[in-house]
Design brief:
The complex is a heterodimer.
Chain A lengths: L3 E4 L2 E5 L4 E7 L7 E6 L6 E6 L5 E4 L2 E6 L4 E6 L8 E7 L8 E2 L3 E6 L1
Parallel strand pairs in A: 2-11
Antiparallel strand pairs in A: 1-3, 3-8, 4-5, 4-9, 6-7, 7-8, 9-10, 9-11
Chain B lengths: L3 E4 L2 E4 L5 E7 L5 E7 L5 E7 L6 E2 L6 E5 L5 E5 L8 E8 L7 E3 L3 E5 L1
Parallel strand pairs in B: 2-11
Antiparallel strand pairs in B: 1-3, 3-8, 4-5, 4-9, 5-6, 7-8, 9-10, 9-11
Classes of the chains: A mainly beta, B mainly beta.
Chain lengths: 112, 113
């Protein structure tokens, strides 16, 4: 049973636009929500992460918005660049756990 | 600093053959993981090792075995490969558990024919 649902499956954005990827989770015990970025032929790499004690976290052009009551979180990429073209995965886990549950991924293409 | 190193990068197996995927990390991490990545399904946890000397099943353990050889090395074994095990396999490590940053290797693309 998939516990983290991610949408959209793919996304095309013009350079300079805003990319938005959404995730929803079921397990209210989750307390760690990272986003991973993966380029073709490479392993995923941590992009940004949030814990439920804050509603938003920003690192450069990347922002996570977190809605605990709705059990949803999203990644916003401002001023999207062609170099941002990659697959993005949301994930969730409990701090006390060893199981990181991934969403199905979003393939982002930023057109020049 | 190499991070997480996986070998081999590519492998083709015939149904029924066995093989071992090797993984080593040089970050002194306690926890190590094996994931498989399939189109449209994200990454799914096969097995993990919370710390040296321990291993546990993840979401999709059937058909696999693991060995935590020491703190650095964590191997994944396919005893009798099946076409359903065609996938990209990733090893990862983290300082301690799923609440800390996971560092991934480059992956092994395995095809079972």
């Amino acid at each position: 049973q998939q516990q983290v649902k991610q949408s959209p499956q793919s996304l095309i954005v013009q350079k300079g636009g805003i990319s938005i990827i959404n995730c929803a989770y079921e397990n209210t015990a989750f307390d760690y929500f990272p986003w991973y970025q993966q380029f073709p032929g490479k392993g995923p790499a941590l992009l940004i992460a949030i814990r439920p004690d804050v509603s938003e976290k920003k690192e450069g052009r990347f922002t996570i918005s977190f809605n605990k009551s709705a059990k949803q979180f999203s990644l916003h990429i401002m001023d999207s660049q062609p170099g941002d073209s990659a697959t993005y995965f949301c994930a969730a886990s409990m701090d006390s756990s060893y199981k990181l549950i991934f969403g199905s991924g979003t393939r982002l293409l930023v057109r020049p | 600093n190499a991070g997480v190193t996986q070998t081999p990068k590519f492998q083709v197996l015939k149904t029924g053959q066995s093989m071992t995927l090797q993984c080593a990390q040089d970050m002194n991490h306690n926890s190590m993981y094996w994931y498989r990545q399939d189109p449209g399904m994200g990454l799914r946890l096969i097995y993990y090792s919370a710390s040296e000397g321990t291993t546990d099943k993840g979401e999709v353990p059937n058909g696999y075995n693991v060995s935590r050889l020491n703190k650095r090395e964590f191997s994944l074994r396919l005893e009798s490969a099946a076409p359903s095990q065609t996938s990209v396999y990733f090893c990862a490590s983290s300082e301690w558990g799923a609440g800390t940053e996971a560092f991934f290797g480059q992956g092994t693309r395995l095809t079972v024919v």
